[in-house]
Amino acid sequence: MSIHLYKHSQPFTLESGEILHELEIGYHTYGTLNEKGDNVIWVCHALTANSDVLDWWKGLFGENDYFNPADHFIVCANVLSSPYGTSSPLSINPQTGQPYYLSFPKVNIRDMANAHCLLAAHLGVTQIEICIGGSLGGQQALEWAIIQPYLIKNLIAIATNARHSPWGIAFNESQRLALLADDTFLPGSPDGGRKGLKAARSMALLSYRTYKTYDISQQEESDAVCDDFRASSYQCYQGDKLVNRFNAYSYWYLSKAMDSHNVGRGRGGVENALKVIKSRTLVIGIRSDVLFPINEQEYLAKHIPGASFVELDSFYGHDGFLIETDALTKIITSFYQKDVKGNNIQLQQTL
Predict the structure, then answer these.
(1) pLDDT tens digits for 285-319?
(2) For position 5, what pLDDT does the model report?
(3) Cβ contacts of residue 338 below 8 Å, gap of 6+?
(4) 164-203 pLDDT, tens per residue?
(5) What pLDDT was estimated at residue 36?
(6) Which of 53, 100, 205, 328 is a plausible cystine mate for 76, CB 3.0–4.6 Å?
(7) What whole-number distance in Å separates Cα of residue 282 and Cα of residue 337?
(8) What pLDDT score does 338 carry?
(9) Binding site residue list
(10) Which residues are CB-contacts of 211 (< 8 A; sequence separation ≥ 6)?
(11) Which positions bind substrate (predicted)?
(12) 165 catalytic per annotation
């Protein structure tokens, strides 16, 4: 499925007051919008993912999965600053004729959600049956549910939070220090910061997984090993994978956007902002998540009116939301079951 491109005809004002005069949004759609317009599934993707959700969320999205394009009109848009088609540091600055690189305006999660609003209007979407996202995707979904509380009928927020924590910001800052340590990053070039990005990804992976994950999957088979450890080669391998498909400048801006996430900003605080949400909300936390600890999802469920909370146990830590698709399918299926009177069943359980 090829990517689509939406070019917004008006200047796009960011929360900072800066303006993007040539906003472009790269996105994918799957399936067909039905006559009632009530079969829209909107996916908000995470930090380094892209709009091709059938590729990276297999097991949850696909022909034989819970979210099937034969039944749903599935939409996923690349976020602002992403290198996969939406306006980003790699876009051409109309004032200079050169890529923005580090002169690109700072964007935040709220700006991403506002861009989704524009794309939804362009596509003729007047109601979203389910908006789902994990991690940075969950942050977008929450913001959108506050900006347009009557647009999203059902909200599924996975391994995410209402505001980014000092712990998460510290992880991101450490990764940005790695980018700055690469002397090719600051001058700005198409391949700038590749070594720094490799190191940043290695750091990030430690927050996405757990001690147990590494202890089992990267353990040496022999006591004689003194160098070239499996864990070392694994970190290098994962760093190279990201370098080959992503961009250091996008990584810089996206990590900054995640740091800025706070639904309470300008709304009288986080709890007041969460009360605005009208969507029937399912919050899913991962017990082993180091980056977005389970208490952050419990907080969401407590302060979003009528929200249900499910705790998922996963060997994979934060990355469990991308890997544990069978468990997620069971949770979502249970959430949408009806009782004999047709009322929605509310969940409060641990799997």
Answers:
(1) 999 999 999 999 999 999 999 999 999 999 999 99
(2) 98
(3) 344, 345
(4) 999 999 999 999 999 999 999 999 999 999 999 999 999 9
(5) 86
(6) 53
(7) 13
(8) 42
(9) 201, 319
(10) none
(11) 201, 319
(12) no
Q: Which residues of the chain have pLDDT under 50?
A: 338-351
User: Which residues make Cβ contacts (< 8 Å) with residue 61, sequence separation at least 6?
Assistant: 30, 43, 53, 54, 67, 74
* 135 assigned to active site: yes
pLDDT of residue 50: 98
Tokens of 207: 């927050």
CA distances from 330 to 41, 333, 336, 337, 350 (A): 18, 5, 10, 11, 12
What the block records as the tokens of 298 is 């419990």
Q: What are the Cα distances from residue 184, in Å, to 93, 172, 249, 292, 323?
A: 20, 20, 11, 32, 34
Cα gap 200→223, rounded to integer Å: 30
Facing residues of 285 across strands? Answer: 311
CA distances from 273 to 59, 136, 142, 295 (A): 33, 18, 10, 18
- Looking at 135, 202, 308, 314, which residue is catalytic? 135
pLDDT at residue 347, rounded to an integer: 47
Distance separating alpha carbons of residues 351 and 320, to the nearest angstrom = 13
Q: Which positions make up the binding site for substrate?
A: 201, 319
* Residue whose entry in the numeric block shows the structure tokens 């992976």: 205
- What was the pLDDT predicted at 350? 40
Query: Which residue is catalytic, options 279, 289, 308, 314?
Result: 289
Question: What's the rounded Cα separation, in Å, for the pair 250 and 193?
Answer: 11
**Would you call 289 a catalytic residue per the annotation?**
yes
- The CB density around residue 65, as the number of other CB atoms within 10 Å, is 15
Written as one string, the DSSP assignment of 201-256 is HHHHHHHHS-HHHHHHHS--S-TT--SS-HHHHHHHHHHHHHHHH--HHHHHHHHH
Structural domains in the chain, sorted by start: 4-166+262-350 (3.40.50.1820), 168-258 (1.10.1740.110)
How many Å from the N-terminal Cα to the C-terminal Cα in the chain? 34
Q: What is the DSSP letter of 105?
A: P
The predicted model scores a pTM of: 0.95
Per-residue pLDDT at 340: 33
